[in-house]
Amino acid sequence: MYRRMLVPLDGSKLAEEVFFYAGELAGRLDIDMHFLNVCDPDEVKLIPMRQVYVERVAEMVKERALKIKTDSGEAEGGRQIEVVARVTMGYPPEEILKYAEENQIDIILMATHGASGVRRWALGSTAHKVLHAANVPVLLVRSGLPENAAHEEWFQRGIVVPLDGSDLAESALSHAEELAKQRGLRNVEVTLIRVCEPILISEISFHLAPTIHPTPLTFEEYVKGEVERVRKRCTKYLNGLAEKLKAKGIRVRTEVLSGNPADEIIRFVTENPFQMIVMASHGRSGLSHLAFGSVAEKVLLSVKIPVLIVMPKS
To answer: Number of H helices and number of E strands within the chain?
Structure first.
């Protein structure tokens, strides 16, 4: 269960774009918030001013969270949301990760730069490094989201979980489950999607394939049958996972798509309103571009909703 959320701040307009989401998550999930500003050792004289800034932000977001709890009727007799405002000195990614580990943080909320091509710098160096080394999920909010994205209706939308049949992708399911439980099982729907990639079948493989039909198939009929077979396998896979979630009281639906995984995920999320995407990414083999995973990165830089990235446990 998510109990403590870390929100790194650097005083920029970009970092402040997460305030709405921090208040929404804290108020609706009853999460304590830790606001952290990392100061360069050369700017030690600025620490008092930065401390005032972080404390002001913490109180402002706390007020929003409490208003959300009150409006939803959950503030009466409930626990108070705690906020912590800290300023430390050092290298931002290292200090953020260190703070998260020492304070038992469950989720890190950060802003990223807007989509300017699928490049590492489009993420922002600090967010990129934290994402690759964090031991907890990182919720990334892309900068420049339209006004209607930061609206009360945002939290009424469901959660979408892209899957590819691997254990890695399925590691995101437990996080979607926890989010659903904390929000109240009847208040959220989880959508599981699987993209069936185009099947490459050569004329040679067609002629070598054994036939189980009483009459010979044309190449087109053979390809159509193979596509349908793959689609049925994907549907069976998603239905099996959905049944496990339904047994826990979670509302679930499934969608099988066809095409390029990243492109289809982006299209589906664009055409259907969701609160957030919860997906797993590849392990941390250094801080290279490839360690992130091309599908996760392309999705993150293209969609207009927050993306919760779950990294595999080491």
So the answer is: 12, 10
Token duo for residue 63: 């007020």
For residue 243, give the amino acid letter.
E
Q: Which of 175, 140, 106 is nearest to 297 (CA)?
A: 140
Whether the CB-CB separation of 176 and 278 falls below 8 Å is answered with yes
User: Quick one: 211 exposed, middle or buried, by C-beta within 10 A (0-12, 13-18, 19+)?
Assistant: exposed
pLDDT in tens, 84-101: 999 999 999 999 999 999
How far is 143 from 282, CA to CA, in rounded Å?
23
Nearest to 140 by CA among 213, 148, 132, 250: 132
Mean pLDDT across the stretch 247-268? 93
Q: Which residues of 143-154 are buried (b: 16+ CB within 10 A; e: fewer)?
A: bebeeebeeeeb
Structure confidence at residue 227 (pLDDT): 79
What predicted TM-score, i.e. pTM, was given to this entire model?
Answer: 0.82
> Any idea how long the chain is?
314
Inter-residue contact 161 to 176 (CB < 8 Å)? yes
- Read off the DSSP letter of residue 203: H
Token pair in block for residue 108: 């890190």
Which amino acid is located at 121 in the chain? W
Strand partners, 72: none
Q: Which pair of tokens denotes residue 301?
A: 């830089």
Nearest to 27 by CA among 69, 84, 83: 69
| Distance (Å) of CA 307 to CA 41, 140, 141, 170, 313 | 32, 5, 7, 16, 18
- Secondary structure class of 109 (helix, strand, coil): strand
